[in-house]
Amino acid sequence: MKLIVGLGNPGSRYQGTRHNVGFEVVSIVARRVQATAEREQFSGLVSQGNLGPEKMLLLKPTTFMNVSGSSVLAARDFYKIETADILIICDDFALPLGKLRFRAKGSSGGQKGLDDVIRRLGTDAVPRLRVGIGAPPSGWDVANFVLSRFNKDEQIEAEISWQLAADGVQTFVQEGIQACMNKFNAKNV
To answer: Are the C-beta atoms of 96 and 187 separated by less than 8 Å?
Structure first.
């Protein structure tokens, strides 16, 4: 079983914000594979689906971004999932809007949700997909920027990148992280 985790913040206040792109991508994957209805478990919203013979557990932690690791740890431990079979999807303001970056391991790069996941799992060898949300405009506070919504022009590009990210998730499930890095890291929307 693969554990696919989209990071974000719960509640309507945060819906559609840059920080919630992980939730958006997981929702797209769930629709594509006709996953089960979401249920509350592991301090998150969980659904299950299959991609061919591969089983997926789709998780959106509802713990708020900066403490997402407890939800991921609970799901991992319950299902006894290997760390290499976990994919964390999060936003990244250091990447241009529409850019995707898969990595098999590494630092959090300052992404606090990913940082908490790494800390709770006790390893930085956690596969991840960073989805570019663009850089904050001059004079903007980073926290305010990541909690802002995409403007009308950006929204189209963002939604295209989420579809491409969902393609990447499917590649991860079927072919692994190396295939994702080869296929998606050079692409821009």
So the answer is: no
Which residues sit opposite 103 in a β-bridge? Answer: 128
**pLDDT, position 187:** 63
- Binding-site positions read 14, 64, 66
Tell me the average pLDDT of the chain.
95
89, 21 Cβ separation under 8 angstroms: yes
- Pair of tokens at residue 84: 């290499």
Q: Is the pLDDT of residue 189 over 90?
A: no
Q: Strand order of the sheet with strand 2-6?
A: 39-41, 44-51, 54-61, 2-6, 86-92, 128-132, 100-103
Residue 180 to residue 73: CA distance in whole angstroms: 24
Q: Are 27 and 10 in contact (CB under 8 A)?
A: no
Question: Which domains occur in the chain, in start order?
Answer: 2-184 (3.40.50.1470)
* Catalytic positions: 19
The structure's pTM equals 0.96
Nearest by Cα to 1 from 37, 35, 40, 51: 51
Backbone angles phi, psi at 86, to 5 degrees: -105, 140
Contact 2, 172 (CB under 8 A): yes
Residue 135 has pLDDT above 90, yes or no: yes
Tokens standing for residue 180:
């994702």
Q: What tokens were used for 103?
A: 């990595």
